[in-house]
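Good morning C.,

I know you're traveling, so I'll keep this short. The sequence:
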Amino acid sequence: MSDLEILYPKSVIVRVEKRKVAIKPVQFRHFEAFGKAAGELLAMLSDASPEQIYTWAQRSGALLDVLVPCTSLSAWRIKRLPSTVAVELMLCVVQVNNNFFGQALTKVASR
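The tokens, ready to paste straight into the viewer:
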């Protein structure tokens, strides 16, 4: 039964502004947009200022590309989050999805 948890990973619950938000695994149909946005964000973290990251996240549409399919928040609610909270949530979504992939790869390697 534990092997099925990797096939169907459970959502992770976090609190965002006193609200419970589920972080869900990225679906295959959103994988390309998610990968592009996550890759750009991780590349920017090494040398961009926080202001540059916030500006990029809002202008590029990356926040919506990552947060709409991978959280229980609506696009309307995401657009109304403070930029610092939205970017931090985006980083959390990337980390959680990385953990889902890491768990799956570990299971495959152990077989």
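Safe travels,
E.
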